[in-house]
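Q: Can I see a sequence and its folded structure?
A: Here is a first one.
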Amino acid sequence: MLSLGIRACVYLKDGRTAMGLVEILQRTRDTGIDGASYSYAMLACRSQGRWRDALQLLSQMKNRGVTPSQSCLRHVIYTCVDVGQWDIVPELVEELRA
């Protein structure tokens, strides 16, 4: 159910709530969070320009052994571009190309 809540946050443009739901899922699930839930949370962060949160989600994915999809990387890139955080973008683009 929490995964559905994260998806709803995209439509509600509520990155803050999405981050909270991700945190709850990380604490309560032994198996962790799937890539799709991370992707939706990143997209919700983009809707509010929450670039730091999007980068944090990307880092959490990697630390938990979840390989970021191209979709996840694009969400983070576009979030950074939208708010003018250009210095981070080249590294993310290289990761996207790899």
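Q: Show me another, different protein.
A: A second, unrelated one:
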Amino acid sequence: MIEVKPVTFDFGDLPINKSKKFSVEVTNTGVKKVIVDTKPYCSSCTTAKVVKHHLDPGESTLINLVFTPTKLGLNHKVVGVLENSNEKTKISFSSNVI
């Protein structure tokens, strides 16, 4: 079982084509080792890199995300967090691209 913090994030106003970075923490709150991975739903504008994929019980890692908006207006993006290849949590973030 994993816990992800934060699961939502608002960048506010962002210039088009300017990358913005942020990180979320993933913690293994279960009693067995887990494998953590990500599934971006917009591969052209979002990258997600897990620092450490294999987590023992109680261990934490970061997922480093980079969002590069390519369209003007309100943007809402989602990255799935996988636990042992099953999607368990979604990280969602938004911005107003100007």
